[in-house]
Amino acid sequence: MYNKAIVNAICANHMYEYFIVNHSFEVIQFSEDIVKYCDKDIFNAPNLILFDLVPELVGMEKDLADILQDQKEDLFIPLVFKDPDYYINIRVHRGVDFQTLIILFENITEVIKIQHDSQQINHENLLLLTQIERKNKQLEAYNQEMQKLVKHEVAKNREKQQMVELQMRHAQMGEMIAMITHQWKQPLSAIHALGTLLKVKFALGKLTQKMFSEKMDNLLLQVTHMNQTVNDFQQFFTPSKVRSNFELNATISSVLSLIETEFSIHNIHIRFKKMPKIYLKGYENEYKQVILSILQNAKDALKVSKQKEKMITIETMQKNSYALVTIEDNAGGIPKEMLGHIFDQYVTSKEKGSGLGLYIAKSVIENNMQGKLWVENNKLGAKFYIEV
Question: Which residues span the domain enclosing 69?
Answer without folding.
Answer: 4-107
